[in-house]
Specification:
By secondary structure, this protein is of the alpha+beta class. Helix content is about 30%, strand content about 35%. Strands 1, 16, 17, 18, 21 and 22 form a six-stranded mixed sheet that branches. A hairpin with a 5-residue loop joins β17 and β18.
Length: about 400
């Protein structure tokens, strides 16, 4: 028994607490933004179609160019339409001549019937002829108007100002035969819309803010109840941040019960032509500033089945798992809406080695803490140097 006791293995060496880096949350004013995905769309889009039947004679634009309203785009052969118009004008003149003759006969019979020189039946027949002549003139005038419209269809002008697509039919082809042939399309580029689906909460917040603004205006004696559009910012996939600023101008009339979202629209200036219809963009709607918001390193936030959490240490360096509610990302720092106090320390390096309920060894503070210590040290050294320089200056004066 004594030999066995002497050969017993020594007790295991206790493991040292794992080394971690900690930091204290940063406090500053942040704006809580709501981010969405949107799609750009033109303010106006028009398909140009042939309404006259004939050979396309000319294409008067360069594909992809900017065209102005009423600019001549296409020319269709017009000989047959001009001939129809001339024929209609001739028929109108003939009808007008017949009406003139019928009107003269009517005036003559009107006098004769009073003198009993003609019968009532003869006068009624003359009146009917005059009315038929008037109707014939009206029909002839309608034919002239229709022929003029058909002739004008041979000259196709731009209905809006915008960027035009390529011509889908080349000159020399038959267009408008049995169908309104699609020739090209025009879209307005400046300004431009962005459509995006926003959350129901954003809509309710906007309506609440609007009510507060209206109530305040009424208290101040202002009767204006107009909507005050909120700012909207967008960014393209190849851009940093959200450099384009616009304004909300439309909301759909109902919330989608399936998704709890509502379609919103904002309008943007596009003088540089960087925004293109159909392109998907990142959309940001800024909220109200949040003073003294608490931010931590985004890498410090963990995720498990229970949700998001931080590993917080107490004054005895014991680790505690703390569930948190997170907000938006601000330059690699995550806003913590709930779960940690500004003066508490959290682990941002060595999270994998730390275990809740166990101690840790602090390796270093965060860059923010180090920077603060260096600043305080520099200020102390500056004050010390100033104190050392004063006696030297005094002794020099005394020597002189």
């Amino acid at each position: 028994m004594m030999i066995a006791g002497c050969n017993a293995p020594p007790p295991p060496t206790p493991m040292k607490p794992p080394t971690v880096s900690v930091a204290v949350p940063v406090q500053k004013t942040v704006v809580f933004n709501a981010d969405f995905t949107g799609r750009l769309a033109s303010v106006a889009s028009v398909e140009i179609r042939a309404r006259a039947d004939g050979i396309l004679e000319k294409v008067n634009f360069k594909p992809g160019s900017l065209v102005k309203k009423d600019e001549l785009l296409f020319e269709i052969e017009r000989d047959q339409y001009q001939a129809t118009l001339d024929k209609s004008n001739a028929a109108l003149k003939a009808s007008q001549a017949q009406l003139k003759d019928a009107q003269a006969t009517f005036e003559r019979y009107k006098i004769l019937v009073k003198k009993k020189a003609v019968t009532e039946e003869e006068f009624n027949n003359v009146t009917a002829d005059r009315d038929k002549a008037e109707a014939s003139v009206m029909a002839s005038q309608a034919d002239v108007d229709q022929a003029t419209i058909d002739l004008n269809y041979t000259r196709i002008h731009a209905p809006i100002t915008g960027e035009i697509s390529r011509n889908l039919v080349d000159a020399g082809n038959l267009v408008g035969s049995g169908e309104n042939t699609l020739l090209t399309s025009i879209v307005t580029m400046d300004p431009i819309y962005v459509y995006f689906d926003a959350s129901e909460r954003l809509l309710l917040d906007a309506l609440k803010k609007r009510k507060i603004r209206i109530d305040d205006s009424l208290k101040n004696g202002k009767q204006s109840k107009e909507k005050e559009p909120f700012k909207v910012f967008i960014g393209l996939s190849n851009e940093e941040g959200y450099p384009h600023e616009g304004e909300y101008d439309f909301a759909n009339n109902e919330v989608d019960p399936g998704t709890g979202t509502i379609q919103l629209r904002a309008i943007f200036k596009n003088t540089e032509g960087l925004l293109y219809p159909g392109v998907y963009v990142r959309v940001r709607v800024p909220g109200d500033p949040i003073p003294n918001a608490v931010l931590v390193h985004d890498v410090a936030i963990g995720t498990d089945l229970a949700g998001k959490y931080l590993l917080v240490i107490d004054n005895k360096n014991i680790v505690e798992r703390r569930s948190v509610e997170i907000g938006q990302l601000e330059n690699n720092m995550r806003v913590i809406l709930k779960g940690i106090k500004p003066d508490e320390k959290y682990i941002y390096e060595g999270i994998q080695r730390a275990r809740p309920g166990r101690p840790v060894t602090i390796k270093s503070e965060s860059a923010e803490s180090t920077k603060k210590e260096k600043t305080e040290k520099a200020e102390t050294e500056t004050k010390s140097n100033q104190k050392e320089k004063k006696p030297a200056s005094t002794s020099k004066s005394a020597g002189n």
